[in-house]
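Chain A, query sequence.
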Amino acid sequence: MIKRINIDKIAILGLLWLLCACQTSAHDNVQKEDKSAKDSSDIKGILEPSYIKVAKAKKESLYYTIYSNGKILSNKEVELAFAASGIVQKIHIKNGDFVTKGQLLVSLDDNEVQLRLRRAREEHNKNDESYRSSFIDFDGGIGDGVAIPDTLKRLLKIRHGLFISEIAMEEAERALENRYLKAPFSGRVADLYVSEGKQVSASTPICYLYADKALEVETFVSESDVHWLKKGMPAEVRPLAGNETYKAQIADINPKVEKQGLVRLRLRIINPEGLLQGMNVKISMQIPQPPQLLVPKEAIVMRSDREVVFTYENGKAMWNYIEKGKENSQYAEVLDGLEEGAEVIISNNLQLSHEARVKKIEEE
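Chain A, predicted structure.
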């Protein structure tokens, strides 16, 4: 019984010792945390403030920009070929030349066709003379058919082969015309690779002609963006080779979604001077939006996978979670988390913390 009481006393004394030890440890931890916080506060007080630039959050119209790639095309283009076969006699143009409508481009050897036309004309003249000489048999002078009825004249023309000779002469004239390749409209010559003396067959491509004053861009945009677009909207076109920018307008929106959810567009270039058929270009189309609260994109930083904007308030950087909307290359829309007129920090903000000391750099 005495042993039992001693064991109980020992257990109680052990518990009391453990309780005192825990309280002492908790007290020491609190002292350490207080000291750490004080030291941190002292460091903040000692550190120099970060120098920053600010901009005001303001309500303006955000131009939502749609980007795409495309290729320069002409709205008037044709591959030219002869309607007959023959030997190339003369090439009157070269690649890159600007030609006018009706200008002679390439001609084939026409000696045989010239003889054929001459023969047809002589035959026609012979038949016409015979036809007119027959008028005398019907109380008319030679060549004078005033008194002869039209029905009789037609029978006389058939009898003397005048209709046949007229057709033969017309066929020869057309065959001669087919020996000359002419420009159907004004434009720029390309893909001219035939040489003089070469035998070409009918329909063999001779050259390519396109209207270089009526160039367009063909491009594709996502079906999710097409509802923003309308005919006549402005756009900018920039060739991959060079920095010059060309103004354009949306000329056609194909009402069909093609492969991979894309919609085909055509844009008319207002002044295409310097552009070439087939060039690869980048296109940007700005879509105006109603006024929204905007901040420069550099004001937005990421913290724990959330978007944050630091605002300047009384010498301190204040942490603000935001909800971002649409954006373009310069500005982003803020749907929630900021007020109009707030001074947002746009430089030296990647390492800032809440309530960090900052100092504005005055713009000169």
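The domain at 50-62+291-360 is CATH 2.40.420.20 (conserved putative lor/sdh protein from methanococcus maripaludis s2 fold). Confidence is low (pLDDT under 50) at residues 1-5, 29-45.
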